Amino acid sequence: MPLNGLKIGCLGAGAMAEALLSGLIKSGFPPDYLYASDIHQQRLAFLQKKLGINPEQSNQGLVKAVNIVVLAVKPQIVGQVLEETGEFFCSGQTLISVAAAVPVKYIEKFLKEPVGVVRVMPNTPCLVGAGASALCAGTYAGEEDLRRARAIFSAVGRVAEVNEELMDAVTGLSGSGPAYMFMILDALTDAGLRAGLSREVAFLLSAQTMLGAAKMALESGEHPARLKNLVTTPAGTAIEGIFALEEGGLRRTLMKAVSEATRRSSEISARLK
Ligand SMILES: NC(=O)c1ccc[n+]([C@@H]2O[C@H](COP(=O)([O-])OP(=O)(O)OC[C@H]3O[C@@H](n4cnc5c(N)ncnc54)[C@H](OP(=O)(O)O)[C@@H]3O)[C@@H](O)[C@H]2O)c1
Question: From CA 72, how far away is CA 261, in angstroms rounded?
């Protein structure tokens, strides 16, 4: 584990914090070096029992105790929490924010020292170790801050780096993407049912097909169009299906979904600039 000797604390101990803490432990990070704070003490007691991490009674205590703080409260709480803790951050610490649509500059306004801030947009499959996260560096974030952030999010999936102006696009694609995939999965399951399969069998085959296709594309590094061509024979079944998808405007619809979600994300972040 490349973060040996560093203490990591989640400020806000909800779903995302639990996914990150569990992922770090599964990848070999010692729970003794993991901390969390939350307004719900029973939530901290639950995570202490389940994962063996250290509960911190206060957000300020957490900031003072660790080298890396993962800010994991809801976006609308970020200002309030940084108002309370901002003055306790020191240079040398890394502040990683996963708060959707909250710009780096907004976070930095609350800090007294030049702290390395890294903004990350993860997605819900982090909960099962298959997340897609994109990160960008703040004004004072150096290579060490980025290395720390990469190591944490690699424990729960795959990581890409982008400039901050592309974070809305990330939100529209991979941040919102699980919702699109679940809709496609539900529709494929219904389609299997319509073709005569039981719901259980249709779901299993549809979900495993989505997973398998993504795994093949990632592991082979092949262009998806080439992989599609491998399944498509002259006058065969797949090309008939593809023809129907083209007729329904699948590509156009997906492109529109991502650009609408991107536009909405930039509207939300503009309020915090
Ligand atoms: N979940 C995801 O897959 C996902 C994906 C991308 C980005 N994110 C980002 O991750 C962040 C956390 O999301 P989440 O889904 O983990 O949210 P969550 O489950 O609501 O977790 C946040 C936790 O922080 C607690 N909290 C509220 N005010 C606090 C305070 N002043 N001090 C300390 N703790 C406080 C919350 O309590 P209450 O419930 O009582 O408010 C809750 O237990 C959000 O900013 C979100 O945009 C999440």
Answer: 22
